[in-house]
Amino acid sequence: MNVVGIILAAGEGTRMGGAVKQMLPFNGKTVVEQVIDNTTASLLQQIFVVIGHRAELITPLLSGRAVTVVHNSDYRKGQSSSLKAGLRALPDGVDAVLFMLGDQPLVTPHTINRILNVFNRSQSPIVIPVYKGERGNPVLFSRETFSDLSALDGDSGGRTLFKEYDGRILEVEVDDPHILSDLDTLEDYVGLLRIAGE
After folding, report:
1. How far apart are the first and last CA of the chain?
2. Is 3-196 CATH 3.90.550.10?
3. Computed over its alpha carbons, how large is the radius of gyration of the chain?
4. What is the Cα–Cα distance from 135 to 128, expressed in whole angstroms?
5. String of b and e for 161-186 (b: at least 16 CB within 10 Å)?
6. Residue 47 parent element (H or E)
7. Which positions ≥6 away from 147 have C-beta within 8 Å?
8. From residue 88, how far is each of 24, 68, 85 by CA, in Å?
9. How far is residue 174's CA from residue 108's CA, in Å, rounded to a whole number?
């Protein structure tokens, strides 16, 4: 199956006290670079990175990396605008998309590959990773859902479709607590650094 990754890295991060969370130092690079490295090390066929807020700072970091950059000029309209920008950039023949959050640098290639392997066997419309019974990210959406995703508005993101596809969603248990954490506040960032041993 042709599954591509879309990294959502366009948000303003309004609760970060003015810091651009995609640009925060992490593991000798930045948060968004670590997310890209984890994603490109997986079995995903192609990687798209959607940027918007402070794109002029993020764009140079993407130079030379095996990713396609997508500019979302409507990023202030919320996460749905980035989902739609990424979908519009897709080539023909894509069977599914794995939406990666640009502020989850600890999600491993192994976790990504587990989600992909489950989809390849099941071809469920939505595949969600679960850690100890709790749903997290990244989430895979098959082509069947693309028209519904393209109709979303605001900052709700793909989880809006969970009710519509209830009963056909496949949850995959992963041994990765980091699917549950992202960077919303500076306290989250400090905690992330602590986990990473920095």
Report:
1. 38
2. yes
3. 16
4. 7
5. beeebeeebbebebebebbbbbbeee
6. strand 47-51
7. none
8. 28, 12, 5
9. 11
The one-letter amino acid code at 127 reads V
Question: pLDDT truncated to tens, each residue of the chain (198 aa)?
Answer: 999 999 999 987 767 766 788 999 999 999 999 999 999 999 999 999 999 999 999 999 999 899 999 999 999 888 999 999 999 999 999 999 999 999 999 999 999 999 999 999 998 999 999 999 999 999 999 999 999 999 998 777 898 999 999 999 999 999 999 999 888 888 999 998 998 876
- Helix, strand, coil abundance in the chain, percent, nearest 5: 40, 20, 40
Two tokens at 152? 């979303």
One-letter amino acid of 32? V
Coil, helix or strand for 29? strand
Contacts of 176 (CB under 8 A, 6+ apart): 107, 108, 110, 111, 129, 131
Q: CA distances (Å), 153 to each of 2, 82, 88, 89, 149, in order? A: 27, 10, 15, 18, 9
Q: How far apart are CA 7 and CA 29, in angstroms?
A: 17
Helix (H, G, I), strand (E, B) or coil at 52: coil
Structure token pair of residue 38: 């984890």
55 in Cβ contact with 63 (< 8 Å): no
As a residue count, the chain comes to 198
Structure tokens at 8: 């959502």
